[in-house]
Every structure is written in structure tokens, then in C-alpha cells.
């Protein structure tokens, strides 16, 4: 060890063990103790000198006395001190009297000798703190069970409630968990019954051929449809699940751990599955049906919309779960919100979003992971560590992306659990299959998305502060925004080569790039377009916003060319940078260079409306914005506003709560009708703008 007067080396270098020559060796003495080499040298010298003395000086050895015990001739050995045995927990009596306790069960040695009652407040082979933590989790589970029981008695039909009461009266005293578990098991049976009644048309030969061919898609993951769903066969379900992980889970919906989900789904046991459920499978399939050519072909053959069938079944199962808390339910709720938002009904689906966040907080994943680690179940703890960390950080990144369309910071707090979903020792592999999920790549993308989410949320909080203090555009404000700009650029430069869209264009890398541009829009869009930035190479705030919009549109056009036109599908996440580009460019239409780019983004939105009705509402909102600002729509763009898939009845109450930036013209237009989205005046609701604009144009 270094001496007190020597400086410690705190540099981040590997600390190697000292060489053997620097250590002070010791040898055993005849007394069984260690002896210093110098002392040993003197002892040997003395022994040699004694041996060289004349033999006359030596006394004659006499025979030993008979009555002397032989053991007296042995050298006296030092008694070895035995250290006090550490015990996990002392009994209450010894701890109260502050004396040593040997931890004996059921009675320790001291209490037994003194005839005292011996009590412990810690479990066997466990510390008091671990026992308290375990008891805390048990009490939390018991409280959740009691709440579930109360909810069951309150919401179930009278006949079911009476059966629950009978079960309580006839069962063991205080067995709340047993009663609730009994009801939940019954719900699983109900789910199975509902699934069996949902199937239809799978015996049609043409439908069967389409279903079988779906499994041949390059991104399909072979999974069984049953017992999870009977709406479609193994082929289509394999395609839909595979496309979810190839498109949505690579960036936006990255909170689901693919390996754990697939393992549970292939096991085919809903009652034992931890990371898969019928609800989650139906939600995933409903989301992916929107862009699946096979799903659309099956809908035509069977005579019903298979997407609606999956979605309705998911909602039915969710209702049967009665608020049961689980990770698959959390994931499914977030997906159901996206299903609603993609069809222009985010206001109706917002309850799914916030219920998912609340449920995930209530699960206390950090405490659950600590208990698993204490139980020394290495395999289960390792899987849970990866799944829990990915769930929390993936939900944080997801909400940070979603929150931008509401001009808010993330409604889900930044996790305190470390990012343990990304094993950096595995490195990053190159993509060979084009766009199929590659696990190290997806975790690297999530890692970068979390870094960008931190910057985004700091920016959005600052935007509110700057608006309230009236410092927008000041020198200090511009310097602050340039610091955030540099942070985003540093994140981009630190990206591994394989997730840089300029080097390897994949849907995940493209979405990550769009998210970085979204953060830049959050930084510079609150400024007036003509504000010059301190960095002269950037030009004005409008120049940066224009470049971000152009990059998002170029990425969407390449996805269309490389994947969408080859009928390989795409993701709803691509509509978000297009939406941001459209509402940003419409306020800049007075500049000649904006019109061609604005036309391109409107074309992309119009061609996606058959899959995602949200884009039709976006175009209505953009048109209303242009008219209220007194800006004419470019002639080349007008055809994309003439054949929108939204009727007049749907425009009377538009269920979209996306927030448009609060430019003065629109803010004044809606200020008397409660259309201001926030008290700070940061924006107005797009749905309210469309509804009022439609009412005025039809009157």
C-alpha cells in the first residue's frame, strides 16, 4: 500500500498487482509464527557460532526423568487467536443489551445460558436490512392485492362479486393473494375462450396460402400463433412480430427485450410467461397490420379488417385484466397509444400512454432487481437486469420522442437504474441483412437515444423558462442554445459507425438521426426565423430549422425508395419527422426555397394516409395554419390537399391533441375558445384549430 505521504494514483488506468520482489517475504518459525528475514539471519549466525565452539564446553546430556511428561520437551507454541465469527443478524435481546451474539437458531447461546426469550427480526441467513427490504416488497404486493380485490368487488358483475365473497369466506384466513390469483387465473381462461371465438376464415385455402407465404418474409421470426391468438395463423403472426422488431423496436418502441419476449412466446404458456401475453401479441399485430401487404390481402379475402380485429381483441383482453400490473401490459399500453395516435385519435388513446407510465412506476423494478441479486440467482437476475433496464430507459426515450408533438418535456422521469441493457463487451456488429434487428445495434441506438433524450428534456424545460422570463433571442439565450447545439453535435460524432445513417442507412439509424434533428428543432424553432446565430457558419435560426426539415424529408424518401416501394413495410415513426417538417415549413412559405421542400413533405404525408389516417389530419392542420397566417399554398402542393381520407363529419370534432407552435396569428385565433394548449402559451392544439377552421369554411 502507498504510504500516507505518497500521492495516490487516481488516473483511470488498470491497477496491477505489485511484483513479488517488492513484498516482504516471511518464513515460518519453529514456534509457528512468521519471522523477519533479518532476525532469521542473526539466529542462523548465532547457531553457526555455537556449533563451532569446543565440545569440552558442552554439558553432558542426561536421560529424561521418568515422571516428566514428554510433552514438556515440545516447544511452547503461541495460541492462535480465533476471530469472532460474523453472524448475519443478532437477536433482539443481544442487540438491546449491546453484547455479542452467536446467531444461534432458534435460541442463541447467550440467551440459552441466561434462560431468556430469544427473538429475531431477520430471516435465517439474511441481514436485518435485506429482511426489511424483502418485507417492504411483500407489503407492497399485499397492498396491491388488496386494491385489486377491492376493484374486483366494485367492478365485477354481482354474480362474480358474490363468488369472490364466497371464496373469501371459505378460504384460509387472510389469503388475499390466493383469492386474487384465483380470479386472475379465471381471466386467463376467459382470454382463451375469447381467442377461440375470434378465429374465422383460417380454413379458407386462399387465406391459408397468404398466411403461409407471410412466414417467408426476410424479417419474419418463427413463432406460434396459438395459444396467443387465433385471429391469424403462424405465418402472418411470425411476419407481424418480426416486422415489429425490425421496424418499431429498433428505435421508437425499444422498451421490449426481444430475446425474452421470443423465448416466452415460443414456450406457448401464457400462465407462466413473464415477458409475453395475449394482450401484447394482439397490440403488436394490430400496429404492424397497417403496413403489411399480407395482412391487407387477408382482410380482402376474409371480408373484414384484420387490423381492427387484432385491435378490438387487445382492448377486450385489457378490460378482462382489470388493471393487473405486469411488464407485458405496460408495453401493450404504450403500443395501443401509438395505434390510436397513428389513426388521428391520440386524444382518445392518451389514457393508454399515462396508464403505462404509472403502471411502470408502480412496479418498482429497481427494488425487484435488488431482491433477485440478493437471492444469488445469477441467470434470472441477469435476464431481469437486461429486461428491467431496457423497459425503463426505452420508455424514457419513447416518451421523449412523443412529448415533442405536445411541446412538453418527457412525462416519464429519467430512470435511476444504470443502463444495463447494452453489453459493451459484445461490441457492435455490422448489418448484413439490410434492416432486420441486430441486437448489439438496437441497444447501441437506444443508448444514443437516451443521451439525446437528456438533452431534449433539458431544452424543453429551458424553453418554458425563457418564455416566462421574456429572454427569447437575447445574447444569453442564444449562447445557451448554442451550448445545447454543441451537445447534440457531440452525440452525433460519438456514434459508432454502424449506426450512422450516412455510413449504414437502416430504419433504426434513420430514426435516430431524425430524433437528433428533432432536438435541434426544439432548440432553434422558438426563435424568430431571421435571428442570426453566434456561429456564423450556421446562419440564422430559420436556416438550421430548414436543414433539419430537409434531412428528415430526405430520410423518409430513402425509406420509401429502399423499403416501402419494395413492399417491405415501414413504421409509423416516420410520420413524426414529416409532421414536424410540415408545421415548421408552413411558417416559412414566404421564402422561395421553402416551396419545393414543402411540396415534397406534403406528397409523402398524402401517400401515407391509407395506412395512417393521422397524416390526413396533419395536412388539414397545415392548410388551416397557412390560411390563418395569410400564406398561400404553393400551386404544386394543392393536389395533395384535395383528396384527403377525412370527411366533414370527422372534422367537426378532431380528436388530436398535438400542439402546434404558438405563433401569434393562431394564438389570437383560438384564445377565446380554450384552444390554447398550455398556460405558458407555448402552442395551440391542432385538433381545435382544424375544428374551428372547418366550421368557419363551411359556414
UniProtKB/TrEMBL annotation:
Residues 1-56 are annotated as: Disordered. One of its GO terms (molecular function) is DNA binding. Residues 90-120 form the Zn(2)-C6 fungal-type domain. Residues 23-33 have a biased composition (Polar residues). Pfam families: Fungal_trans (PF04082), Zn_clus (PF00172). Keywords: Metal-binding, Nucleus. The keyword Transcription does not apply. Residues 46-56 have a biased composition (Low complexity). GO terms for biological process: DNA-templated transcription. PROSITE patterns: ZN2_CY6_FUNGAL_1, ZN2_CY6_FUNGAL_2. PANTHER family: ZN(II)2CYS6 TRANSCRIPTION FACTOR (EUROFUNG), ZN(II)2CYS6 TRANSCRIPTION FACTOR (EUROFUNG)-RELATED. This is Zn(2)-C6 fungal-type domain-containing protein. It comes from Plectosphaerella plurivora. The lineage of its organism: Eukaryota, Fungi, Dikarya, Ascomycota, Pezizomycotina.
